[in-house]
Structure formats: C-alpha cells, structure tokens
Amino acid sequence: MILGETYRKIREEKGISISSLAGAEISKSQISRFELGETEISVFKLLYLLERIGVTLEEFLLICNHYQPSDFNTLIASVKQAAYNEDAQALLDMVEKEIELFHETNSHYHKLNAIFIESIVSGMDKNHQLSRQDASYLTNYLFSVENWGYYETLILGNCCRVLSPDLLFRYAKEALKKGKLYSPIPRNRQSLIQLLLNSLIIMIENDLYEESLFLKQATKNILADSTDFFEQTILLYLDGYLELKFYHNQKSLLKIKEALKIFELFNKTIYKNYKQYFEKHIIHLVD
Predict the structure, then answer these.
(1) What contacts 119, CB < 8 A, 6 or more positions away?
(2) Residue 137 class from Cβ within 10 Å (0-12 exposed, 13-18 middle, 19+ buried)?
(3) Is the distance from CB of 167 to CB of 139 less than 8 angstroms?
(4) 179: nearest Cα among 164, 157, 204, 209
(5) From CA 73, how far away is CA 78, in angstroms rounded?
(6) pLDDT digits (tens, 9 = 90+) for 250-277
(7) Euclidean distance between CA atoms 93 and 277, whole angstroms
(8) Which entry of 40, 130, 185, 282 is 20 to 30 Å from 26 by CA?
(9) CATH (one of 1.10.150.80, 3.30.379.10, 1.10.630.10, 1.10.260.40) for 3-65
(10) CA angle 243, 245, 250 (to 5 degrees)
(11) DSSP letters of 79-98?
C-alpha cells in the first residue's frame, strides 16, 4: 500500500476532511494529489499531516506494512528471545541466515547483523569466539559512520566483549558524542544506556578506574529524572561493584544486595544471572 493511499484511508476512518488539514504548510490540492499517488511530499509535510490526524510516524509505517513489524525489528525480537532462553543454537541459525542474505545481497547490514548475533553467542559459550576479521569489519564500519543511530549503538552494545577495553572505551565515548543527536528518541536512548552499562562493567573488571568513573557519571546523567527503573537498578548494582573494587568500601555491598532484591522481584532469570555474576566476580572482594 502506497503512503498516500494509506494516509487517505486513515484520514477517512477518522472522519477528517482534506480542507481541515490544508494551510500554509501544504495546500488542499497537494494533499489530494499525494493521496491519489500523483505526487510525493517531503518528510516534513508528511510529519505535519500525520500530526494533524493524531498518528505517529511509527504507527503510520506499521500500517503501511500491513501491521507487520519490519524485518529488522522481527530479527531483534527473535535475538532477544533466544538470548533470554540461552538458546545458542537458535542464535547460530540466525547467524547462518544473515550470512546467506549477505552473500545474496552484498548488504553489509546482514554481515553486521551476523557479527552482533555471533558476539552474543560468544558471551554464552567461551569456546565460540568472534574472528578477528569480523571484529575488524565491525570496527571499520563504526569508524566510517559519522552519526551513530539506534543500529550502531545496538550492535556495539552487544559486541562489547569482542573489543579490547581501551578500544571499547573510545567507542563508548564516541557513542555519547555521535549518538547525542538521536537521544530524544526513546529506543536510541535505551540502546545508548545499555551500551554504557555493558562498557562500565567491563571497565570495572579490567581495573580501569578513570574510565569506570567516566562511564558511571555519563550513565547517571542520562538516567537522571528518568523512569528507567530497570537500568537504574543495574547502575546501582555496578556502582556497588565499582566502590567495592576500587575503594574496598564494604558498605557498597548493601547497594549490590539491594539491586539483587529488586532483580528477584522483577525477573527470576535476570536475578539468577546477576547473582551468578556476583558469586563469580564480586564476592571475593568482600572481607
């Protein structure tokens, strides 16, 4: 279904006339020709028209796609579910499919999709590591992109452990700078926060004090006055870990325990993962 035809269908269902939409921004005849598919309009005019009928761009695109999520959103949902279930084979099947699509289309996005999915598998199975060639492919791509949107911060956030700590920190700082333009968009902001939290834990693990403080403060600034309760709880957990690691402050254990209690109420699987991490990486720091 073309954009204009979809717009007309929504407008008529809402009982809104073309005359009531026309104005200085766009004329009645322009709207009519757009709906008939006789002409195209700018993105700004489309956004204006959508706002006038109370429909978001995301909703409009979903309707245009017959209420089906995009291929990428479907892929991300499948990856999240497989990772949550710790189903490495399902993830590897997705990697294979993306590689096939890469060979068919020569689109680097399919190659990058395969890389970030495989990096998740490497986090689940230490015997399955990302190749140096793939890691280099990822870093070359990130270096070539001027502004980092949702896609760039998403793949980097999932590939943190395949990069050296020094390189990861440089990229995390770049993400803060390059992704700033897109931060008002909720999912872009969410992927940036996830990247910073994933980077922070790696900095703490590798005894990188200054880098840890920088990422902690950057994350804290983004989360200030927000309702991102889950991410705030992760930051509380990591704040306790940081203070215990670098300051040997035993009271910091209370922050970790408080975060674990919240995780237990929030989600048993997430609680189990953070509890296991505590027992493997943090408990030895406790006197």
Answers:
(1) 130, 158, 159, 161, 162
(2) middle
(3) yes
(4) 157
(5) 9
(6) 889 999 999 999 999 988 889 999 999 9
(7) 27
(8) 185
(9) 1.10.260.40
(10) 60
(11) HHHHHHTT-HHHHHHHHHHH
Ordered by start, the domain boundaries in the chain are: 3-65, 70-129
8 Å CB contact between 115 and 79: no
The sign of the CA dihedral 73, 74, 77, 79 is negative
Q: What is the pTM of this model?
A: 0.81
The C-alpha atoms of residue 88 and residue 93 are separated, in whole angstroms, by 9
Residues 6+ apart with CB under 8 A from 204: 212, 238, 241, 242, 245
In degrees, to the nearest 5, what angle opens at C-alpha 125 toward C-alphas 236 and 197? 20
Q: On the CB side of 286, how many CA atoms lie within 13 Å of its CA? A: 14
pLDDT (average), residues 73-81: 91
Question: Which amino acid is present at 261?
Answer: K
Confidence of residue 66 (pLDDT cuts 50, 70, 90): confident
Structure token digits, residue 273: 């993962």
**pLDDT (tens digit, 9 = 90+) per residue, 111-167?**
999 999 999 999 888 888 888 899 999 999 998 888 888 899 999 999 999 899 999
pLDDT at 133: 93
